[in-house]
Amino acid sequence: MSLTLHLPLDTSRLVLRPHRMSDLDDLARFHGDPDVVRYVPWPVRDRAATEETLRVKLTQTELVAHGQWLVLAVEVRDTGRVVGEVLLKWASEAQGEIGFALARDGQGQGYAAEAATAMLRLGFDELGFHRITAVCIAENDASARLLGRLGFRQEARLVDNVHFKGAWATQLVFAMLEDEWRSRAEPR
Question: pTM here?
Answer without folding.
Answer: 0.94
